[in-house]
Write a structure and sequence with these properties.
Elements: H1 3-11, H2 40-72
């Protein structure tokens, strides 16, 4: 090797291999508090409210879809 190549090798070190990305732990974390479940009737009432809201959202999305398909056609 000539002097120029030796100098360049000293100035520009070889690149390092990239580090492996760290993965999140697979074990479940422990919650700092206990989960408080509502009573049976409260659960049913809450689920009914959620279903009602989802139905209304679905109806609105259907109306929007019909409006958009009418404009493009």
């Amino acid at each position: 090797m000539n002097k120029r190549k030796i100098v360049n090798a000293n100035v520009f070190p070889a690149p390092l291999a990239p580090e492996k990305p760290s993965r999140p732990t697979t074990s479940r974390e422990v919650w700092p508090y206990t989960l408080i479940l509502p009573e049976g009737e409260e659960t049913r009432k809450t689920l009914r409210e959620i279903l009602t809201r989802l139905d209304s959202i679905e109806k609105r999305l259907d109306r929007i879809e019909k409006l958009l398909s009418g404009r493009s056609g």
